[in-house]
Amino acid sequence: MKELEVPKLTWEERYRRMIDIAYALSTTYKTLLKEQYGEQTAIEISKKVQATMSGRCARKLIQYYDLKPTVEDVIKLMKLYSSEVWGYGADKYVGAYLESPRKGLFVNKVCRIWEKRKDFGDENRSTCHINCAEEYGSLARQLAPQVKVTVGKAYPKGDDCCEFFIEEPE
Fold first, then answer.
1. In whole angstroms, what is the distance from residue 115 CA to residue 117 CA?
2. In this structure, what DSSP letter does residue 117 have?
3. What pLDDT digit, counting tens, does each position of 81-116 carry?
C-alpha cells in the first residue's frame, strides 16, 4: 500500500480555516435557535454563550499581557481580542481610543460575521449588536468589573461600524 502525500497548510491558513469555522458555528446555532425558539430566546442563549467564550479568552490574554483593571487596558484587551483573535492580526479592522483615564472607545470597523451574514443564512441579522455588547462587556468585566461597556453605533442599526464606549463610573 502506498502512503499518500497530503499538502500541508501554513499556520496562517489553518488559523483562517478555524476562524471561518467559528464564524459559521456561531451564526448557525443562533439561526437555528431563532427558528426553533424565537428571537428573544436566541438572544438570551447567545448572550450567555458569547460571554462564556469571551471570558475564557479574556482571562488568558489578561494573564499573558499582564493587563491592569484600567479603562486603557480594557480597550487594549478589546483590541487584542478583536484584532488578534477574530481579525487575523490586522489592526485595520479595529480602532482603540482613550479620551481620559476613565473613558474611551473601541471600534470594530469591519465585522466578518456582518459581512458574510448572507453566506451564513442570516441576512436579517438585526440583533447581533446585543450579543456583541454581552461579549465585549464580559471581556471587560474579566479585567475591570467596575467598567461599563455601552454600544453606540452598530451595523444592524445601519451604521458603518460598531462602537463600544468604555467608561469607569466616578
1. 6
2. T
3. 988 888 767 788 899 999 999 999 999 998 877 887
Pairing of strands 162-167, 103-108: antiparallel
CA atoms of 27 and 93, how far apart (whole Å): 20
Q: For 20, what's the count of Cα atoms within 13 Å in the CB-facing half-sphere?
A: 8
Handedness of CA 133, 49, 121, 112 (dihedral sign): positive
Query: Which residue in 113, 116, 104, 158 sits closest to 135, CA to CA?
Result: 113
pTM, to two decimals: 0.85
- Residues of the chain scoring pLDDT < 70: 88
d(CA 104, CA 101): 8
